[in-house]
Amino acid sequence: MISRYNIFILLIILLHSCNQAGFESTLSDPSLTLWYDKPASVWEEALPLGNGKTGAMVFGGISTERYQLNDLTLWSGFPGDTNNPDGPAILKKTREAVFAGDYLKAGEEWKKIHGPYSARYLPMGDLFIRMEHTDTPGTAYRRSLNISKALSSVKYTADNKIYTRESFISFPGKLLVINLGCNKKRSVSFKAEIKSDLKYSVGKVDENTLLLKGKAPYHVAHRDNDPIQVGYNDIDGEGTSFEIRLRIMCKGGTVEATGSSLTVVNADHAVILVAGATSYSGFDKMPGLKWKDPSDESVSVIESASRIKYDDLRRYHERDYTKLFNRVSLDLGSDHEAESLPTDDRLLRFNSGKPDPGLQALYFQFGRYLLISGSRDQGIPVNLQGIWNYQIQPPWGSNYTTNINTEMNYWLAENTNLSECHLPLLNFIESLAENGSGTARICFGLDGWCCFHNSDIWAKTSPPGGGSWDPRGSPRWSCWPMAGAWFCQHLFRHYEYTGDTAFLRNKAWPLMRGAAEFLLGWLVEDSNGYLVTNPSTSPENVFKIDGKTYEVSMATTMDMAITRDLFRNCLTTLDIINEEPEFRARLEKAVSRLYPYHIGQYGQLQEWFLDLDDPKDTHRHISQLYGLFPGTEISFRRTPDLASASKRTLIHRGDISTGWSMAWKINWWARLGDGDHAIRILKAGLTYIGPKNPAYKGGGTYPNLFDGHPPFQIDGNFGGTAGIAEMMLQSHDGFIALLPALPSEWPKGKVRGLKAKGNFTVDMEWENGNLTKAVIYSLLGGNCRIGTSTPVKVNGTGSSEAEGPNPNQFFRTPPEPPYKNNSKVSPGPVPVKKMYTIDFMTEKGKRYTLVPA
Fold first, then answer.
1. Helix, coil or strand: residue 29
2. DSSP class of 93
């Protein structure tokens, strides 16, 4: 019989073999862990870490580990005035051509507004850890990312020893922390090197600290025919300066600086601290060393972290991260067979048709993980690739693509309970407004502010396209001044979800007013007396007349929907803050004259000013459905004809597309109440892209769960998470709808912590597709109107059947917009499920439990 003492000794040995300074912490909760049985062979297999500014991709190598490093503030270029003073004359000629029906000439004229392309988001460098193993293949290998704690781990056996690496990027500590251990003392030996693909030099600071100093290029080309592909100034010239400071601290053994590397010999375990910093000091300041020396930041960060024990650094990191992540949990059921597989094999298993609701829940939470990891810096939002990029010339510059992608990045911020992570975008809008006022004034002679199709860290608002030197620059994507108005929807949403009236009055309203002022000047009268946008494009799409292709017309549906949305939100804001009656009158008059929606000949929601939609067009952008989502103007309950036309449009365009496009479609189908169609697209979006499926070239998901356009764009991750939330909870239609688009494939589950407008937090449980319990936490008080597919009652308080408009101001719905129906077919109605709605009053800070009646 084994004695208690021997059992105790066995437990100690087992824990020690799994753990060096807490390795076992990364092994918990398989439902929230990505894991793999081999190192990453390509970047899209590596695992992301971040704190909103510093990003790293962890490859998990055995003999050589690689951490690819980014800093959100490291971009090419510098601030500059790129507005075109010839803009007013260009605009006049373009408008004349559009009104004359000469769309070819309109495109040629409008293209003359083109200016320089945006700056590029850049990689900072790479950390390589070269382990000294005699037995390099390694066995019992596992690398993982625990998204519930934002911890990466690698574990393997080599030389008959168990080696571990644990990594995280701390928001409180502002740096990357790596802990290397082994189950046998004096066995951790390696060489650490830092390099960069940019202009740099490396040297030692002392025997345990390295310093890489680098310079970002002043220019990175957008096209391969640009005579300057990557252009550098001298170290004192313009362009962002940066540095990476690396320090190693050991228990046992030695650490020594040898040339441009640090060598550790025979340590028990070692902690590596990596701090990055740049000279960026604001969107409007030249990024040379005049304003900021990156050494000030990197020295402060390293010195502070060096005084804190590793376990404390990790504890501070986990405490900070989990206070955000743990607000929401989702349980759709688990499958032991699926969870026992590496994540890439799990994707392939799912693609073969086997059910795995746990993978969909993991994907939902992975989107939240990425937003927390990428969006904490208070002045700079995540870009097209979040904060993770390894290329000097990344796809589309890894910039802010503002005709959908940047906006989609933040659709999940409010409803998945991450309002704080929305702030980087909301603050960045102030920078855009400042520069955008110059664009409005110089390019068009107008008041207010606007933003065109691409932006960057320098808050570029002027039209991109390359100017006259780039024949491939095209007005169908470059000449679109509606981004500023769209961004204002995010400002208003933040107010609707948080109830922060001070934010609405002092921050959101001045920005919304400026964007509305621009549009009031931008709108012109057509021959029928309607106010229209002219020129106008439907982002990145084209139309045909008599077999000829055109790009520019007027009053595209997206333009008019964004305009109506902004004006309505402005009017609601003026009701709340009770100011500016004259401006209100201007808005009300303009709204009454806006060009209406049109239902086209095929029963579709018309995209163009003319009924020119092609039902065989499967273009990835379906911008005409803005009013269905993220807007709220179209509803299958309030505007059934427009909802039916929206559904017809979705059917014409098809389900399969690029990754981000499929994410948008999930949200549209959820808004139409069709969870089964939404999940069908979600499953298609989880199609594996990678080395184990080399023949597949469409949109889907990489082995590390990054969204594949392809290539990688993070908006698909964020849009997918937002869509899953929309399937479970909606609050745009005048009430809080519980399980409004629940797929039949999710018959049982529970979710905790989703957000509704009015700052209500919602927990739900369901079985057999029916709600069994909900808990509503009211943070503001006021009337709570709940809609469910089966009757419910509120424990401990009275409720009544809902009648009339919701008296809670956060649940105002827009009036039915005007539209003209020119359909030659019957599109068929959108099925409307019976909804039971009740009202009950809530008190601030109290919870209310709902159960079946």
1. coil
2. H
Confirm if 209 and 273 have CB atoms less than 8 A apart. Answer: no
Please state, in angstroms and as integers, the Cα–Cα distance from residue 824 to each residue in 34, 305, 545, 603, 821, following that order: 51, 69, 20, 7, 9
Integer Cα distance of 707 and 716 in angstroms: 5
- Looking at residue 803, the DSSP 8-state letter turns out to be -
Buried b (16+ CB within 10 A) or exposed e, 633-642: bbbbbbbebb
| 534, amino acid identity | N
Place of tokens 């026992």: 340
- Give the Å distances, CA to CA, from 665 to 422, 533, 551: 22, 26, 24
Q: pLDDT of 222-235, one tens digit each?
A: 999 899 999 999 87
- Are 318 and 706 in contact, with CB atoms under 8 Å apart? no
Sign for the CA dihedral angle at 462, 714, 276, 120 comes to negative
CB 515 within 8 A of CB 587: no
Contact of 783 with 810, CB cutoff 8 Å: no
Residue 808 DSSP code: S
Q: Is the peptide bond before 852 cis (omega within 30 degrees of 0)?
A: no
**Which residues partner with 847 through β-bridges?**
777
Tokens found for residue 686: 């989880």
Rounded Cα–Cα distance for residues 301 and 273 (Å): 9
Contact (Cβ atoms closer than 8 angstroms) between residue 368 and residue 150: no
Residue 231: which residues within 8 A CB-CB, separation 6 or more?
A: 217, 218, 219, 220
pTM of the model: 0.96
pLDDT band at 28 (very low <50, low <70, confident <90, very high): low
Is residue 9 over pLDDT 70?
Answer: no
Helix (H, G, I), strand (E, B) or coil at 219: strand
Q: Report the distance separating Cα 825 and Cα 823, nearest Å.
A: 5
Q: Burial letters for 170-196: b for 16+ Cβ neighbours within 10 Å, e otherwise?
A: bbebbbbbbbbbbbeeebbbbbbbbbb
d(CA 240, CA 290): 11
Residue of 563, 502, 501, 508 lying closest to 532 (CA atoms): 563
Chain segment 784-843, per-residue pLDDT in tens:
999 999 999 999 999 999 999 999 999 999 999 999 999 999 878 888 889 999 999 999
Provide the 10 A C-beta neighbour count for residue 29.
11
Query: Which has more confidence, 500 or 23?
Result: 500
The encoded tokens of residue 344 equal 């890439």
CB 662 within 8 A of CB 713: no
Q: Which two tokens stand for residue 780?
A: 């503001």
Tokens representing 160 are: 């008959």
The number of angstroms, rounded, from the C-alpha of 664 to the middle of its chain's C-alpha atoms is 12
Which residues share a beta bridge with 707? 701
Range in 22-31, 102-111, 397-406, 836-845 with the lowest mean pLDDT: 22-31
34: nearest Cα among 150, 122, 125, 117? 150
Q: What is the DSSP letter of 580?
A: -
Eight-state DSSP code of residue 701: E
Q: Are 57 and 81 in contact (CB under 8 A)?
A: no
Cα–Cα distances (Å) from 179 to 235, 307, 824, in that order, read 34, 15, 67
3-state secondary structure of 372: helix
Phi/psi of residue 640, nearest 5 degrees: -60, -35
Model pLDDT, residue 5 = 35
Closest CA to 747 of 423, 331, 464: 331
Q: How far apart are CA 255 and CA 266, in angstroms?
A: 9
Report the first-to-last Cα separation within the chain, whole angstroms: 58
Angle at 717 between CA 711 and CA 718, to 5 degrees: 130
611-625 confidence digits (pLDDT tens): 999 999 999 999 999
- What is the token pair recorded at 180? 């290397």
Confidence of residue 137 (pLDDT cuts 50, 70, 90): confident
